[in-house]
Amino acid sequence: MKQSIMFKNKPLIKSWASVAGKKESEGPLGAYFDVTTDDDMFSGKNWEQAESRMQTEAVKKAISKSGVGTNDIGGIVAGDLLGQLMATSFGISQLQFPFLGVFGACSTMGESIAVASMIVSAGFSDNVIAMTSSHFATAEKQFRFPLGYGNQRPLSATTTVTGSGAVVISSKDDNSNETPIFIEGITIGKIEDYGVKDSNNMGAAMAPAAYSVIMANLKENEFVASDYDCIITGDLGVVGGKILNDMLLHSGVDITERYMDCGVEIYNLNSQDAHSGGSGCGCSAITLCGLILGRLRRGEWKKVLFVPTGALLSTVSLHEGNTIPAIAHAIILKGGK
Q1: Are residues 148 and 208 in the same domain?
Q2: Lowest mean pLDDT: which of 177-181, 188-192, 237-241, 315-319?
Q3: Interatomic CA distance for residues 149 and 203, integer angstroms
Q4: Angle, alpha carbons 95-99-136 (nearest 5°)
Q5: Would you say 187 and 4 are in contact if contact means Cβ atoms under 8 Å apart?
């Protein structure tokens, strides 16, 4: 079963916006984010409201940068980590866009871009927003322990990123002065489960999913790794990134010279106490909407493979002793005509 779609009518990313929390703004990518804050509550009453406010800000910022009127937005494809997509439901309800909620755990930015791209490429809408978010405190509350518990985490654990990223995906570019960024194609991932049960080592659970979708992307499109300037995973962290590279090398594919992981890039791992790196839907989203798309627009990269990764665990499955299935989706991004 073929997983890849190469678009005949290539949609493009017209604009993007990123909203980042305090720790993220203090990291190596802080200068790339559109909105940063010293208040991770975002003046809200609770952590969940804070995450919703990040989403609202990201969407509004992305639209304002696009030059597209609000009435010309055909819909929004978005999700988050919380039950019933709680942050998204409250975050965008006031905007009254047609809405498709998606859940791919930390791969949600890839899934939302994939769905939005297919809608635009097929001609059903000229402008669709793809967005996601995560918040350290909301994720810890739902999946692990409340912050006040003060539990200790092993070095293999990752730190959920507080941030939200949004992109406006369009059928045409009205700004000829800027380098366009096209979505050339997508590779939809399959669920992979290698039997990992440790929720504090999600990099190990997700690495096989990244391996599977990267191999499918290369094989189905008759690509080699060097066709990309960079292959970028979402949040495998130090541990998962090493596993991924070992798996690829075992299959004869060497991406070590062109590999980057958003979770490794977003924090200073020597000084910010992030353990194995960053994770959460917002990790790949704000790295995409900060660093990656900026480099494509400036011509520093011509073509990249963006591969957000997600661990599909829940509090129920975890407590029942189940393994951690994982998913990853690959987005081909190309700068220039």
Answers
A1: no
A2: 315-319
A3: 24
A4: 80
A5: yes
**pLDDT computed for residue 177 by the predictor:** 67
Same domain, 166 and 274: no
Tokens describing residue 129: 């927003």
| 175: in domain | no
- What is the tens place of the pLDDT at every residue in 266-323? 998 887 877 778 889 999 999 999 999 999 999 999 999 999 999 998 878 877 889 9
Q: Does 142 lie in the same domain as 23?
A: yes
Q: Is-contact 322 207, C-beta < 8 A?
A: no
Indicate whether 243 and 297 sit together in one domain. yes
Three-state SS for 190?
A: coil
Domain CATH code at residue 108: 3.40.47.40
Instruction: Using a cut of 0.85, tell me whether the model's pTM lies above it.
Output: yes
Nearest to 174 by CA among 295, 303, 57, 69: 69
- Cβ atoms within 10 Å of 179's Cβ, excluding its own: 14
Domain housing 286: 181-335
Who contacts 193 (Cβ-Cβ below 8 Å, separation ≥6)?
323, 324, 325, 326
pLDDT of residue 315: 77
Q: Is the confidence at residue 263, as pLDDT, over 80?
A: yes
Element housing 269 (H / E)? none
Whole-angstrom distance, CA of residue 158 vs CA of residue 170:
34
Quote the tokens at residue 305. Answer: 């493979």
* Overall domain count for the chain: 2
Task: Read off the pLDDT of residues 210-220 as tens digits, 9 standing for 90 and up.
Answer: 999 999 999 99
| Phi and psi, residue 89, nearest 5° | -55, -45
The alpha carbon dihedral of 334, 312, 138, 235 has a sign of: negative
Give me 29's structure tokens: 């990518």
Pairing of strands 259-261, 309-311: unpaired
Greater pLDDT, 62 or 175: 62
